[in-house]
Amino acid sequence: MFKEYEVWFVTGAQLLYGGDAVKAVDAHSNEMVEGLNRSGRLPVKVVYKGTVNSSKEVTATFKAANSDGKCIGVITWMHTFSPAKMWIHGLQELRKPLCHFHTQFNKEIPWETMDMDFMNLNQSAHGDREFGHIVARMHKPRKLVVGHWQDAAAQDRIAVWMRVAAAWADAQDMLIIRFGDQMNNVAVTDGDKVDAEIKLGYHVDYCPIAILAAYQNDVTEADIDRLVETYGKEYAVAPDDWKNAHFVGQVRNAARTEIALRRLLNDKGAKAFTTNFDDLEGIDQLPGLASQRLMAEGYGFGAEGDWKTAALYRTMWFMGQGLPNGCSFLEDYTLNFDGEKSAILQAHMLEVCPLIAAQQPRLEVHPLGIGGKNDPARLVFTSKEGEGVAATIVDVGDRFRMIVNKVDCIKSKSLPKLPVASALWIPRPNFEVGAGAWILAGGTHHSSFSYDLTTEYLEDYAEIAGIELLVIDEDTTLSGFKKELRTNDVYYKIMGN
Ligand code: MN
Question: Considering the entire predicted model, what is its pTM?
Answer without folding.
Answer: 0.97
